[in-house]
Specification:
There is one protein chain. With about 210 residues, the chain is mainly alpha-helical. It has 2 domains: about 1-50, Arc Repressor Mutant, subunit A, CATH 1.10.10; about 60-210, Orthogonal Bundle (Tetracycline Repressor, domain 2), CATH 1.10.357. It is built from 9 helices and no strands. It has helices at about 5-20, 30-40, 45-50, 55-80, 85-100, 100-110, 140-150, 155-175, 195-210. The chain is elongated, with a radius of gyration of 19 Å. About 25% of the residues are buried.
């Protein structure tokens, strides 16, 4: 295997191992020593790639940000090429995407709530240090909304819809992952208010209200 490929493979293993370590714990609980022990590598190897805990956590966040963005872009591409375009179907598919892996959204929520990811005014920042926290798949969301609302739709309205819908998804997925949803945590569909179908119905209703407002 090419040396560069070996490095990328090891980096991804470190990222996924770190994610599995912190998803059920606080971010402060991250132990580079335990990650190195789990992978059977020395601490220096992890520090070589990530230069400390903060950078490692940022890379974990970035990994799932990119993964989620690529998935949303694929859903948007499929919907925009569909002769029977449906904004509601797209948002339903996005909701299914998020709730199929609630632990990822819960980790992202945990990361965004970490005070070290805020600017000096207390506003949330992304790993890319943009002026506002750009949710994953923003461009894809924008393309769908422009198709639904028309090219003259205001930038302000589009970004308000995107941010509001993502906030709802992250909150709902955090509830799912914390086992609040469902009378039986192993059957998250069964709760009339917090089950998967109820969360999806609520999300689609919110999307409809935002689009029509």
């Amino acid at each position: 295997m090419d040396t560069s490929l070996k490095r990328e493979h090891l980096k991804e293993k470190i990222i996924l191992t770190t994610f599995n370590f912190v998803k059920d714990r606080s971010l402060e609980a991250l132990s580079i020593r335990e990650i190195s022990k789990n992978l059977g590598i020395n601490i220096a190897s992890i520090n070589y790639y990530f230069a400390g805990k903060e950078n490692l956590l940022t890379e974990v966040f970035k990994h799932f940000y990119i993964k989620r963005t690529e998935a949303i872009e694929m859903l948007a591409k499929e919907e925009l090429s569909n002769e029977s375009f449906s904004c509601e179907r797209f948002f339903g598919n996005v909701c299914d995407l998020f709730t199929s892996a609630p632990e990822e959204a819960a980790f992202a929520m945990k990361s965004m709530l970490n005070s070290k990811m805020k600017d000096e005014n207390g506003n949330f920042q992304t790993i890319f240090e943009s002026d506002f926290p750009t949710p994953p798949g923003t461009i894809a969301f924008k393309d769908i909304l422009l198709r639904e609302l028309g090219e003259d739709a205001s930038e302000e309205k589009i970004h308000f819809i995107i941010h509001t819908l993502h906030s709802q998804l992250y909150m709902d997925c955090s509830l799912l992952y914390s086992n609040v949803a469902g009378k039986n945590p192993d059957i998250s569909e069964d709760h009339e208010l917090l089950g998967l179908q109820a969360l999806k119905d609520k999300f689609l209703k919110l999307a409809k209200i935002l689009i029509q407002s």
